[in-house]
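In this supplementary section we document a worked example of the pipeline. Step one takes a protein sequence of length 251 as its only input; no multiple sequence alignment statistics are reported here. Step two produces a three-dimensional model, which step three serialises into structure tokens for compact storage. The input and output of this example are shown verbatim.
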Amino acid sequence: MIGSAGHSLDQRELLKRAGLSVFSFDHLPLQDNTLPIWQGTVSHGIRVEVPNFNHYVADLQKTNKKFVKEVERHTNQLVQRYGEVNFQWQSARPGVELERLIDRKRSQYIKSGARDALKLPWARQLLLELLGAQDKNCEAILSTLYCGDTWVASNFALRTEQLLHIWFPVFNRDLRRFGPGHVLFFKLIESAADRGVRIVDFGGGVSAYKKKYSGIQYPLFKGCLRRINLLSAAHRVAQSLSWKIRPLLSK
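The serialised model returned by step three reads:
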């Protein structure tokens, strides 16, 4: 959304002009936000500042030396067992690698009981179309990590100039004792810094694995804007029922 800085927006007028009865949003950064948000919940995300990769690792060693040594050890073990590391910032086989990433990510959702963000065809098609788009303000990055001929991990991210936003990381579950996801992230952060990225955003949620990177927490907002009409009322009822039924289905 493009608007004048400091200009207050009326939610009903905004939705009316957009032709919407309800606008639901998630992971909305509160800083510099111009939406007239008023109802929802606040969570947090984590982002890592990397002006220089070597300096970042040196600082990380001061706060979490055990973690850095663990990633180095796992990397060496993978090389010894499977072969030399082959990291590709942008996969040379985007179609094949994206298909694998979607399949592994959906399997992960099923095992964890989380909502399948890639269940609907349009969501999967979106990733494919983003990979084909060429724009410095919004570039899809599909990175892969192999050791020899063995696939280790992959990640789908969006980049805009100096910011890389992690979207869908996946890893080879047969190699989980080697911490394949962390080995991938170290390679990804290093390659991103070499390309001018200065912030790597892990997105919403303050998971234990994200905390290991000694990033900065920032607030995010989840909620919706509504007009007063029948469609908006129906959506509110359906959403309320969904929240009540979802815990029962997950048992």
